[in-house]
Write a structure and sequence with these properties.
By secondary structure, this protein is of the alpha/beta class. The chain has two domains: 198 residues, Quinone Oxidoreductase, Chain A, domain 1, CATH 3.90.180.10; 139 residues, NAD(P)-binding Rossmann-like Domain (Rossmann fold), CATH 3.40.50. It is 29% helix and 21% strand. The protein is built from twelve helices and 15 strands. Strands 3, 4, 5, 6, 7, 14 and 15 form a seven-stranded mixed sheet that branches. The chain has a six-stranded parallel sheet with strand order 10-9-8-11-12-13, sandwiched between helices. The protein starts with a strand and ends with a strand. 52% of the residues are buried.
Length: 344
Amino acid sequence: MRAVVIEQFGVLPAVREVPAPAAPAGAVVLDVEATGLCRSDHHAFTGHDGDVTLPHVPGHELVGRVAALGEGVRRVQVGDRVTTPFVEGCGRCRWCREGASQVCPDQTQPGFTHDGSWAEQVVIRAADHNLVPVPEDLPAEAVVTLGCRFATAYRGLTARAGLRAGEGVAVIGCGGVGLSAVMIAAALGARPIAVDVDPGALALARDHGAEVLVDTSGLDAAQAAAAIVEAAGKRPTVTVEALGREQTTDAALFALAPLGRHVQIGLYAAPPRLAMPRVIGQELTVLGSHGMAAADYPGLLELVVSGALRPQDLVTRTLDLEQAGEALLELGERTRPGVTIIRP
């Protein structure tokens, strides 16, 4: 099969012919219909993720169709159309049994722990536990980002922050996951505040539900926080950081109302030093959000199927495998507004 293969960290990957995968026990092989380009893929590409060994096929957001079943798979059949969370639980441990597969100590992640979905086929482990059936009439553009960006944002806002209708929520960093958080907050009846330095990203956020836009170009953390509070008219009770940078996380913590909840989604390239005195003094709650278990997908899918949430509207670019490597390299230099998907 054809796949994008990283052969050296940070060096432009190329499309190669590689052996087609077989399905181990408990796993399936999927024919990939579409897959996403996510900033987490760039972390793998640059060698920031210790699970990645070379040569390596990236890609962890996907929609596809079951092509082959490993021994013991019972809940899906060949031909089923499915997606999967990018954090895949073992299905056996305490955490998986309690519905918290996103923190499974024996988790696997396509595109990180093993070859991913920037290919014609991909293996999904513990398939009965991790696969999520999706309707045939949903376009691929509506499903791809449910594997990472929308799932992470949805769980972060609902299960972690407990976002309520009418609350102000400042989303700092309006790339794919940040825009997902803006759209989900709007669909839940909250008041999204979009914060970014890119006019294109802010325009997309406005078009998809943001009530307040804040351009923080050239501002330090304290100045950015002041700009958020001034634009919104009051301190938000929930903040989301979707970039993984010290300065923007500090801006979120400085802006947050006393007793507020901060959701950290952005991944850091190095351990950060953050404004913990404010966390202590204002009794802020800092929450991580790293994916969502397959068992929690029905609520998210219900919003998508009903039309209240339209992930497909964020897709601004569709590439083939030959174009994917250049797009991955470009992520280190700039972020394009919206979401890019790849169709193998």
